[in-house]
Amino acid sequence: MSQLVRAVRAAGEPEVSRRRVFDAAFFGVAALCFAASAAATIAGSASMSAMGEMPMPGGWTMSMAWMPMCGQTWAGATASFLGMWIVMMVAMMLPSLTPMLWRYRQAVGGTGGTRLGRLTVLVGVGYFAVWTAFGIAAFVSGVALAALAMRLPALARAVPVALGVVVLIAGALQCTAWKARQLECCRAAPGHCGGLPADAGTAWRHGLRLGLHCGYCCAGLTVVLLVVGVMDLRAMALVTAAITGERLAPGGERVAQVIGAVVVGAGVVLIARATGLG
Predict the structure, then answer these.
(1) 3-state secondary structure of 53
(2) pLDDT, tens digit, 9 for 90 and up, residues 224-238
(3) Are 200 and 115 in contact (CB under 8 A)?
(4) So where are the chain's domains?
């Protein structure tokens, strides 16, 4: 009997070793993607900072991300923004996405390493396709609001107060039951009731679902980033830490509420400053 057990274990050892190699490769690729996207984001932020900002009525400045550069078409401006947006989203979301991709790999089960890698990439592509759609919506909205602010000085003067109100609302959203439900969807392991089919269609749809839940869950914090400065490295670092913390830390709902309280406080401070009370 002992010989049979040893034979079974010996037969399983090569498979276990292969699995460990594939797992190590997965985390290695994730780390490289994060490093590359972070470096590109830092470079893009420096480039955007070099362009300066436009002074506006009301004592604030508007980012040049919402308008084409000299000689640039709107198509070029849109492509440039989306390029920066996608790279930034990879850097910001990959720390919390990697565990979700890992859980997907576990749920798929015994698929071969190469095929599992392709399916994992497809999940990631679906996930960031959703964030690309959100980026398009953000750019269109930002361009429209920037155009209105430049044409209507009275509206421009109200922007600092409006931004503070938006930040305050975004912080309050962190403490709602809706936020808790979205966060639970993001933290839940895929296939917890069984394995997931190992096919491209399922992988793509799973990536889209992850992206939608993540987008809904991060709506408030993403709005804060857009309001504070879409390419501000400090804002990006803080929002990344907040998103990662509420996704991965024990008691994520409590973490989200604490983050919400801090954001609400920041909104109050912004409103006080804009109205001359702070």
Answers:
(1) strand
(2) 999 888 888 899 999
(3) no
(4) 2-274
